[in-house]
Design goal:
Layout: H1 17-34, E1 38-39, E2 45-47, H2 48-52, H3 60-65, E3 67-70, E4 76-79, H4 84-93, E5 102-111, E6 123-132, H5 138-154, E7 159-165, H6 169-184, H7 192-200, H8 214-218, H9 229-245, E8 249-251, E9 263-271, E10 279-285, H10 289-292, E11 300-306, H11 307-320, E12 325-329, H12 335-348, E13 354-356, H13 363-372, E14 377-381, H14 383-388, E15 390-395, E16 403-406, H15 407-412, H16 414-421
Parallel strand pairs: 1-5, 7-8, 12-13, 12-14
Antiparallel strand pairs: 2-4, 3-4, 5-6, 6-11, 7-9, 9-10, 10-11, 14-15, 15-16
Helix pairs in contact: 1-5, 5-9
This protein binds histidyl-adenosine monophosphate.
């Protein structure tokens, strides 16, 4: 074996893996195009200031994780640890937001000197998405709907959306004062990192993963108490759109994000199936960044997908081979109807995996097979269901009660309905 090896935390991607990367990127790009986003290609290296002035001097990324070097001219340059800062730099430099809003995306490697582990690398890949020039709440809601559509298109399941608002700048300032007062009264419980953050960046203490700080953080005053009517109204409007669209979320008041440029809406999509590195997509609003980087005040919001993590999740879910739905007929007479229902579901919701029981086994045996298939739901058609043009939906994994629903309702919105039913 050659003694020359790839740098720790930086991986080769070789065939046939590259095929999976290309397929993922193509699907993501097609969904982005359907929302009007266009690609921007950016340098991988930027002046260090691009990041220190945007991500924040006191963040882990800027303090500990950047690959910074001096080039032959003596200039301080950095391999990009993320894409938002460089994207805004480019947008300003190329005059892209003078008259119009921009919906942009970029794709490529990012670099952070973190401790490598499964799902965490020193060179990793993101698709980043930035919507520049629009104040919320419509675009905030649309961006989240876009991410939810991505999971549906990719056939990904078991992703949980966490949502929070950090408030406008003045509200955060007020909150900061309250937090400093609270944590200052408990300095003996603060770990070294948090002591350091207390005066420089107290919000980041809320993001501490130290178990000894958990109770103290849980009792910290909530930011929501500092929000004015306008911020509360915007946040409620985003939730209303998500509710109408059937996107399920939880509000996590402790979600603060690891980069300083955020204000108002922040969100993360998390899976439990990837262990500790379960956040596959994260982002939020950054209304002051454009001005901070030398432009006119311009609202903006965006997010980035971690491609290694998405591919990892696709792998896990594909290898498990679970199906979502297992259709059974109570009696032989309903078998044709069961086959027809499964066909209709595949037509209505192609990303759901639907198995229809084939054969003349008893209902009991069919239900056993349904259970063994890993399906989340059994759909049962018996004589009564046939007459009522309905289906009985039985949860197989302990979620909720068995219930009957109209066939039409199932087909109009199979995917959403089944998600809701699992709540
Ligand atoms: P971020 O939360 O730092 O946000 O990263 C976004 C995603 O990139 C994470 O959720 C994760 O999936 C992936 N990621 C981050 N670090 C690593 C790593 N070391 N190894 C593997 N994957 C990783 C941003 O970067 C913001 N620029 C997102 C954004 C865009 N906000 C507004 N616009």
């Amino acid at each position: 074996m050659s003694e020359l090896r790839a740098v720790r935390g930086m991986n080769d991607i070789v065939p046939p893996e590259t095929d999976r990367w290309q397929a993922l990127e193509a699907t993501v790009k097609s969904v982005l195009a359907s929302y009007g986003y266009r690609e921007i290609r950016l340098p991988i290296v930027e002046s260090t200031q691009v990041f220190s002035r945007s991500i924040g001097d006191t963040t882990d990324i800027v303090q500990k994780e950047m690959y910074t070097f001096t080039d032959r001219n003596g200039d301080s340059l950095t391999l990009r640890p993320e894409g938002t800062a460089g994207c805004i730099r480019a947008v300003l430099e190329n005059g892209l937001i003078q008259q119009t809003v921009q919906r942009l995306y970029y794709c490529g490697p990012m670099f952070r000197h973190e401790r490598p582990q499964k799902g965490r690398y020193r060179q990793f890949h993101q698709v980043g998405v930035e919507a520049i020039g629009m104040a919320g709440p419509d675009i905030d809601a649309e961006i989240i709907l876009l991410t939810a559509r991505l999971w549906r298109t990719l056939g990904l399941k078991n992703l949980r959306l966490e949502l929070n608002t950090l408030g406008a700048a003045a509200e955060r300032e007020h909150y900061r004062t309250e937090l400093v007062a609270y944590f200052s009264a408990h300095t003996s419980t603060l770990d070294a990192d948090s002591q350091h953050r207390l005066t420089r960046n107290p919000l980041r203490i809320l993001d501490s993963k130290n178990p000894d700080m958990k109770a103290l953080i849980a009792d910290a005053p909530p930011l929501h108490a500092c929000l004015g009517e306008a911020s509360k109204g915007e946040f409620a409007a985003i939730q209303a759109v998500l509710d109408t669209a059937g996107v399920i979320y939880t509000i996590n008041p402790r979600l603060v994000r690891g980069l300083d440029y955020y204000s108002k809406t922040v969100f993360e999509w998390i899976t439990e199936e990837l262990g500790a590195q379960g956040t596959v997509c994260a982002g939020g609003r950054y209304d002051t960044l454009v001005e901070q980087m030398g432009g006119r005040p311009t609202p903006a919001i965006g997010f980035a997908l971690g491609l290694e993590r998405l591919l990892g999740l696709l792998d896990i879910q594909a290898s498990r081979g679970d199906c979502e739905l297992y259709v059974v007929a109570a009696e032989a007479a309903q078998r044709p109807a069961a086959l027809a229902l499964a066909e209709d579901i595949r037509e209505a919701a192609p990303t759901l995996r639907t198995i229809c029981h084939c054969g003349s086994e008893s209902l009991k045996t069919q239900m056993k097979r349904a259970d063994r298939s890993g399906a989340h739901w059994a759909l049962i058609i018996g004589p009564d269901e046939l007459v009522a043009d309905a289906v009985t939906l039985k949860p197989l994994r302990g979620q909720g009660e068995q219930r009957r629903i109209a066939r039409r309702e199932l087909l109009t919105d199979a995917q959403r309905l089944l998600h809701r039913a699992s709540e």
